[in-house]
Predict the structure.
Amino acid sequence: MQTSSDRHEYPAHWEADVVLRDGGTARIRPITADDAERLVSFYEQVSDESKYYRFFAPYPRLSAKDVHRFTHHDFVDRVGLAATVGDEFIGTVRYDRIGAGGRPATGAEADEAEVAFLVQDAHQGRGVASALLEHIAAVARERGIRRFAAEVLPANTKMIKVFTDAGYTQKRSFEDGVVRLEFGLEPTDRSLAVQYAREQRAEARSVQRLLAPGAVAVIGTGRAPGGVGRSILGNIRDGGFTGRLYAVNGALPQGQKELDGVPAFRSVRDIDGPVDVAVVAVPAERVPEVVAECGEHDVQGLVVVSAGYAESGPDGRERQRALVRQARSYGMRIIGPSSFGVINTSPEVRLNASLAPDMPRAGRIGLFAQSGAIGVALLSRLHRRGGGVTGVTGLSTFVSSGNRADVSGNDVLQYWYEDADTDVALMYLESIGNPRKFTRLARRTAAAKPLVVVQGARHGAGPRGHAVRATQLPHATVSALLRQAGVIRVDTITDLVDAGLLLARQPLPAGPRVAILGNSESLGLLTYDACLAEGLRPHPPQDLTTAASAADFHAALSHALADDSSDAVVVTAIPSVGEGSVGDAALAEALRSAAAEQPTKPVLVVHVELGGLAEALSAATSTAPQPGAASGPDPTPRTGERVKPRAAADEGAPADEKGVPAPAPPPEGTHPIPAYPAAERAVRALAQAVAYGQWRRDAADPGKVPEYEDIDERGAAALIEGMLARGQGLTLTTEATCELLAAYGVHVHRALPAPTPDAAAEAARTLGHPVALKATAPHLRHRADLGGVRLDLADEEQLRRAYAELTELFGSPEELRPVVQRMAPRGVDTVVRAVIDPAAGAVLSFGLAGAASQLLGDMAHRLIPVTDRDATSLVRSIRTAPLLFGWRGSAPVDTPALEELMLRVSRLVHDHPEVVAVTLEPVVVAPHGISVLGASVRLAPPPARDDHGPRTLPAY
């Protein structure tokens, strides 16, 4: 049992589960007085050499005084953390605050500490020390320590490497045979890059262990045919799994050695040899026993298909928490519970540990689904050849996360990012547990390969089985932030498949210009209209007439692809009848050969009831660009351009629903052409590809966060500290708001209270005419349409008359709360907001003030920190942006000044996480300059940890 410390309560928020370098998990927590026996046992298992490196002398055992010292901490000046697996220590780290001359010290005046590690030899090389360093550094920063010092023997190269590779700014010295390292603890760009790279490798490895096991045990294989466990066992066996497969059922008769031709055992502990993954298909009440057996047998991960967890109510939610805690205590990760299973089509693995009866064709699309039912639908659509989007398409991997109690979409993204077999990632999400991390990972993944996402439960609570942090942002805002991160957001699973097929099969378009050709004028016009509706720039359709031959299609497509004025080509085709009509196979070959001659532009086909053409156009082949396909350099980004092609179908690939064999692959170096049954679907997929291609080009130069010499960061920090000392969370007064914003170069026009007509007149004399008189009562604030504002009051007589009118219309001055403000130059009223959302992080929003933003929701959003390119695009992203750029002959306003204002607000919120909300409204943007007429700021204590903190798994 954890106990309180000498000076502070036990810091439970320091506890964290982490993924280590090899994909296993460990728990990091503070060391307490209850850990004396664990510490002694841990030390006994450490080699003499490691003990020597730790204490610089032979130190065979810890004395009672040592044990007391290393287990009694005040959690401020003396802190110890342990990495544990199960109930055993595998590594420890501690710091002691020191002052001048390296002597022990207390208090915030001493901001340096000495740090030391010890890792059990059997666990060295797993990244334990690196994880402990991240966490002890975060603890030290929380306790006001700014620097670490460490003394290391020169021969202890592993520990020296832990410090030097961490990315902190360091100073190294050598004296008396000891290397002394000193380094600051403030995160740097390099330290964050190192941390994120380690996180990616560890989490990717943890997923790889689940998707590419050498041995699988299916636990819960019923003795009678049928049932979930027995079905999964048969699917793994029939899919041709290349590793070892075992059936486990505690009710098997003594002496039964096989089940369906698979070695069978009563317990996983009876298996002679390692088991990498266990598929758990037993009733929920039996799962804890199974998890314990797997943990004792050193199973690396679990796929839990059992139901009866958080989706079933509060009792199930607690059962799910206990499942995760139990599995992590053994260093195992979990997919599920309530998972549909996992699939890996790689020829080296061929794992179908799912309820899908057939192994999907191998290909280059990765698929993640939180819903088992939607996963089935997506697998079916991608697999079948008829109906919907037709054609042979293959998967690299499939993960159904179920309740995603542990392994989530973030983990799978980490795996796909470096997976050479995946060119396109498709995800069906019903909740995003950590949107801040998801957008960070999505941005990095999208820079390398397309990521297409459809989100369910957009307008209500997510599934009961998903434990997520609540977000205060509307769905439209979250979607905008995902698009900013390069995510291709679609609305339906049909759109998900449509976009995925195009991105997996064709190069990205270089722009929005679209050529349209085909043998139906009407279908061509429908395609033209669809292009305009999606914001593309189509050329007039070229009608080849219904008498067009395969040669006519070939010539027209070749000409369109060679035309520098087009970036993509949509071919429309309807059945033709009569003598000499073009056949499906001939037309498909004509289109494919023409596309092969110009492989740098995407080609799509819109077909009407041409099943044969759809199959002929499709091919089970690599979606990666083929070397030598183009005659010259191609600046257009391609999907999967670092991936070598491999065949996506084997001789045993299943036929389609009508029993038609899969078509032969096209010639080497060609791209399969996707076919769509409706023009709208084809064009929608093309528009997504165009937008993504533009994002890829823009992402190559994301811009920079400008530095402004007049920003007083330290002064603002002092103001915030003083203000927060008066309360835990508060909305600043007008004076405090103006003072804080001024520290970042944001100046708010003074607004003087006017409780009486005489006070209003005095305020006007102070500010100078002309002035504005405004009612600031909540129901009238920012509502000029209600008449609560009087502008351009040139003298005292006009001011007093306006004051009388307002009080007569709306009530007493006490109700109106009138203020007087000097008139600002005429312009466009806008609003700039920044908010720190508990789930998504810091977000900057912009729109026009009034009905455009309040009624129509015409706001644009960017994640903070905002770069100069972000600010430029933010201004132009709203639908009413033309009002800023001279709409209908009006004067264009000073958008550079507006962009600078947003950059300054972004800096304020990014530099000071205590600033949780900023609203500037209205911001009047004139032809020359801007005027901030209203502002509010809210402060709150910053969170103890954020996305820049140490690596952690979601708490359970």
Q: What stands out?
A: Residues 1-6, 385-391, 619-668 have pLDDT under 50 and may be disordered. The chain is about 35% helix and 20% strand. The two ends are 18 Å apart (CA to CA).
